[in-house]
Amino acid sequence: MEFWEVEKWLSAAFAVRALHSDTTFLTLTVRQTEPGSLTSVRLKRLLTVLTLLLRFAPVAFVPERSSAHKVPKKLCQRDRVFCFIESFFGGGFMKAVICDGRISPAMERGLQKYGYYVIKLPAAKTLPEGISSHPDSLIFRLGDIFLTTCEYGEDASYIFSDVREFSESSRLYFIDESFEKSYPKDAMLNALSFGKTLIANKKTVAPKILEISEKEGYTLKNVNQGYPNCSILKLDEENAITADAGIYKALCEIGVRTLLISQGHISLPPYDYGFIGGASGVDGDKVFFLGDLSRHPDAEKIESFIKELGMRVICLSDEPLADLGGLIFI
Questions:
Q1: Residue 44 falls in which region: left (phi positive, over 0), alpha (psi -120 to 50) or beta
Q2: Share of residues in the chain with pLDDT > 70 (%)
Q3: Cα torsion angle, 218, 221, 227, 228, sign
Q4: Contact 204, 226 (CB under 8 A)
Q5: 324 versus 83: which is more confidently predicted?
Q6: Is the pTM of this model over 0.70?
Q7: Rg (CA), the chain
Q8: Mind listing the domains of the chain with CATH numbers?
Q9: How is 127-158 classified by DSSP, letter by letter?
Q10: pLDDT at 146
């Protein structure tokens, strides 16, 4: 689809936010006017296409390879320049992050500031409301493998289309089992890996996860905690943070350097408290927190542990730290 055709089926809303005194960051929200018309995530990337707006330049710049395309005048607000990064046309620069659909506007803007296309998960009606749109409850990820239920895969098919668009090597699996509002069926996808070791509760995790991980060459480290992915902030393959003593012991036994912190101090309504893994996410050297880490009593210890690894602490908002099921970066 040519750029000038976008006008025919998109309505655009602009949200302009200052990043620096002489730079503005643009978020372009697009909506379909006809069901199924938004067929490529490349067009949806207009949401966070990282266009650099130069305040007074009167012309639009498009990469040389795409010079035949014209930018619709409606998209040029007040003669600012749209510098369409060449990766928009398939260079792979853009990244995406999967998050709870109830993420706050401040947190969403924080992710967009770092150049992520934000994929917000809709709720699964069969899960408890508090975790119904949590990534760590709805999707199991193992390398390039993404696994969910057939029911959720059908209800949120566009999510997994986005996953494939952003990660062409991804392998999608769908299982016949259904979520339920009570334990353990609300935790059957809650597992994660360190190196070639799968951390899971073999009594609660979906059998298909055990089958796939074994086929991929992973060995199981069984834990009593039914929500290990929630409970662990995985910094890399050799370092982690948790408030669960049993998890702490299990990780130490497989050689993962682990920081044990105090329980609680993380919001997860209607439960008493949430977990550190669900309140964070890691992409490369960036450790994102869903809220203000400084409100946690072990904030200094956590920050020091992270910085020792040469990683950065990024709080996505000044709101209380919240367990939203973590972040999945693709």
A1: alpha
A2: 72
A3: negative
A4: yes
A5: 324
A6: yes
A7: 21
A8: 3-89 (no CATH), 95-329 (3.75.10.10)
A9: S-GGGTT-HHHH-EEETTEEEEEHHHHHHTHH
A10: 98
